[in-house]
Amino acid sequence: MHPVHEPLRRGQALLSRYAESTVWLARYMERIENLARIIDVTDTFTRTGTGENDWRSVVQINADEERFFAGRSEADVASVAEFYILDRENPNSIASLIQVARENARTLRPLISTEMWTHLNMMHKWVRGLTRSDIRPSQLSTLCTRLKQECQTHYGITEGTFYRDQGWYFYVIGKYLERGNQTTRLVDIKYHTLLPRDAEVGSQVDMSQWSAVLRSAAAYHAYRRMMPRSLAPAAVAGFLLLNNAFPRSLVLTLRQVNWALSQLRTDYGLRRGGNALERMDELRASLADQTIEEIILRGLHEFLDWVQMQLHHIHDEIAEAFWAVIPAPAEPASGTAIAASASQIIGGGGMSQTLGGMTQVIGVTNQIDPNDSTEPPEPIQT
């Protein structure tokens, strides 16, 4: 039986390895759901005969073209589904992501509920037991539906059982950083891929394409509620980036990260997140000062590239502030975005995973204490 631990009170230290693992657990579970949603929508869309090159766009959204085409000549339903669901050599596959999510949850056993741990174990066992027969075209939509439901069950259990102390705020930070990153990638790739030719503007094909983009972000019904008569590309992009009420919009995800970081500073005295908050303020101001039409006129791709870079830096600065940083080899940008893939190595140092330029090694114990008042080697406190 796992020992019972007292909840953390104000002034008590949250071990930095717990802060780190909580952020990563949230990011990986969010990434699994987003990936399952995009695969499901793409499968539905291509089966209607209106999505000619959409399986390649799944690879582009995840910045995996180099890795994918190193061993495959074509992006079709069979190759993409295997690569992103079953392939354990692909660190961005659901089979790999659930493995590192579970390892982070193992580190967090003193903090998370038995229900959280049990569900993650059951999900891990199910996902790692999937075979090629489970990703046949006739089964793919059903499989993706269950993957989404399993992730949503995780969120529900977490919401209902995770004690509201420092750990909760780090979970919120990880979840919404990942969600904002995924939304910007989706808009960046899909907007330029699906810009219609003049002959198609307003056609049924054009409408179904933009419906698919909204469904990929679980935004279709919310969008139709606000704009029942328009499916214009700029309106869709504006909704996904700038809407203040949609849970997956870039604006709202940044607001959630900002709130969680601010709570850590005010309620728990974790002052080292100042650099991340300053960068967050700059990013939020740039969104508040522009309409979607102005962003598109100045260059949507360039703007979203800059946003993704800022999200990458915010993650880096949070890591530098709150846990021991292990630099990773630089990953070149692939496609239209900074590579943000996970990688894992099993060896004498345990499991390591990288996101952008940051690496986590699970099991390392020489971590800094985020409540420690001493300055890190390169101070970032404002």
UniProtKB/TrEMBL annotation:
Domain DUF403: 14-322
Pfam families linked: Alpha-E
InterPro entries, per database record: ATP-dep_Glu-Cys_Ligase-2 (IPR051680), DUF403 (IPR007296)
Superkingdom of the organism of origin: Bacteria
Signal peptide boundaries: none
Entry protein name: Alpha-E domain-containing protein
Organism: Endosaccharibacter trunci
